[in-house]
Each structure stands twice: as C-alpha cells, then as structure tokens.
Specification:
This protein is mainly α. Helix content is 52%, strand content 0%. It contains 3 helices and no strands. It has helices at residues 11-22, 26-37, 44-53.
Length: 66
Amino acid sequence: MPLFWKPYQSDVTKFIEEMKARKPNLEAEQRAGRARLWDRPVDREAQEEWRDARVAQQPYVYQTKQ
C-alpha cells in the first residue's frame, strides 16, 4: 500500500457529506418528513373490514363469466 494512499470516495458521497456540512439539521428534517408521511398509527379495525370486503379476482380477468 502506498504511503500517501487515501480511501476512495465517490462524487455522490462527497456531495452528501458537503450537503450535511452546509445543513446540519438535514437528517432531522428527513426524519420528520418520513414520520409525517409513513409513520402513522394503523387502524386495525378498518384494515380488517377492508380485508373482509375484498372480492376475489377471477384467474383470467378478461374472460367473461358464462
């Protein structure tokens, strides 16, 4: 291994590190956005009703019933 060897960093990694250095609260904002969109309580009753009301699809959807 050469004396002045540095580990490789891709352009994308460099960009992300620069962005985090410019905006230190970026990760907290990302977590807040994720929580707003995805981390929601699951309504088990509504989910069960939806599952019970589901109609099974026929094997070949383009064939009409005779």
